[in-house]
Every structure is written in C-alpha cells, then in structure tokens.
Amino acid sequence: MSTPGFDYTITRTLDAPVDKVWDAWVNPDNYGQWASAEQVALDVRPGGAWSAVMVIPGGARIPLSGTYTEVVPNKRLVMGMNVPGRGEPAIMDLDLTADGDRTQITLSQSFDTAEERDQAEQGSNMLLDGLTSFLAAA
Length: 138
Known about the structure:
This protein is an alpha+beta fold. The chain has three helices and seven strands; from the N terminus they run βααββββββα. A seven-stranded antiparallel β-sheet has the order 1-7-6-5-4-3-2. Residues 15-135 form the Activator of Hsp90 ATPase homologue 1/2-like C-terminal domain.
C-alpha cells in the first residue's frame, strides 16, 4: 500500500514519431546530447542499470544512477533513481503514445515531500525542454 505523497505529472506533445522519442531515451549518445549528461551508460531492460553524470548550468556535475523496472519498447519506461540518504529509489514513469508523426510523452513521479517533488518536476521540465530541442534539430 502506498502512502499519500506529493506527485507530479507532466504531459507534452513532441513533434517527432514515437520511435525517435524512444531512441532519444535509450541510446546513450542521444541521451547525453539532450540531457546534458556525460559518461552515460544505459542497460535498457528490466533490472538493467543506468548511470550518467548530469552537467547542470554553471558546470556542476551530478552523478546519477538507478535501474529500470519496466521496459515496453516505444510505449513505457519505468526507472528507479538512487537518491542519497533515501532507502528506496525514486521511481519515474515515462509513457509514450503515438499520434501519427507526433508523440505524447507523460512523465510522472511521487515523493515524500513537496520540496523533493518541486525539484524533480523542475528537473523533468528542463529534461523535456532539452528533448524537444534535440528532436527539433534531428
């Protein structure tokens, strides 16, 4: 039973077909470009590990890692992210819905505090901005 938490859900329509959006998330070279990440390693399968060093504005580098819990190609990606000081990983659900040559993407997460949720939501919006720019240039 999950406890009531602080959730967010972001839905956007991307101007790219679903296979291109999927490839942007699961191809390490592509992910590194749009997510401002270095040293990207993605083992995209249930139980597979992922890691990346995010480079945030100002140049700070933040190492991130986790595992995939659900992988449905071109449809759904559920990944856990290891959070320092937290016993369980933070889970992010990514859902893709094809809409002709466009794709609806939905990201959602749940947190214990509003502060954690707000930080993650801001980060996810920045990620989606980068993804949108990457797909537009592709």
